[in-house]
Amino acid sequence: MSAVVIMRELLIARSQVATKVPAARVFIGATPQGVLLPAVAVSDVGGNEIRTIARNGPSSTIRGRVQVTVYARTYEDQERLLLACKLGAGVHTGTVRGYKVKAVEPMGTNPAIPPGDDKIYERSRDFMVTFTEAN
Fold it and tell me: Which burial class, exposed, middle or buried, applies to 33 when counting CB atoms under 10 A from its CB (0-12, 13-18, 19+)?
């Protein structure tokens, strides 16, 4: 879940996201039913520990794939929010919530899920989050 926490923090710190979705509607895991839209969910897709000699030390390097899913009332709002969640140029590094982040890299977008009876537009983009955590 560490990669998910890192990704959520980066999203809520980004002004392009914050102007569209308040931090309280950027969720870890599933988005609650009936939530006011637009909203964002950040979830773990998978990951692995990078095996190096550093594994013998107090920390190890983790690569976690994270999916950021946006929910909106219109297709246009969905696409604008998905673009805002792209995080902008560059590879994001630094300390986030106590984790040393080595890189947050975009891994592409996924197909839109057509709206059902609920009329919710949904689409996601993936990121690879590389960071260190305690062994």
Answer: exposed
pLDDT band (50, 70, 90) for residue 135 = confident
Domain 2-134 bears CATH identifier 3.10.310.10: no
- Name the token pair of 1: 């879940």
In tens, the pLDDT along 75-106 reads 999 999 999 999 988 889 999 998 999 999 99
> Would you call the peptide bond into 58 cis, given omega within 30 degrees of 0 as the criterion?
no
Rounded distance, CA 75 to CA 93, Å? 32
**3-state helix vs strand vs coil in the chain, percent to 5:** 25, 45, 35
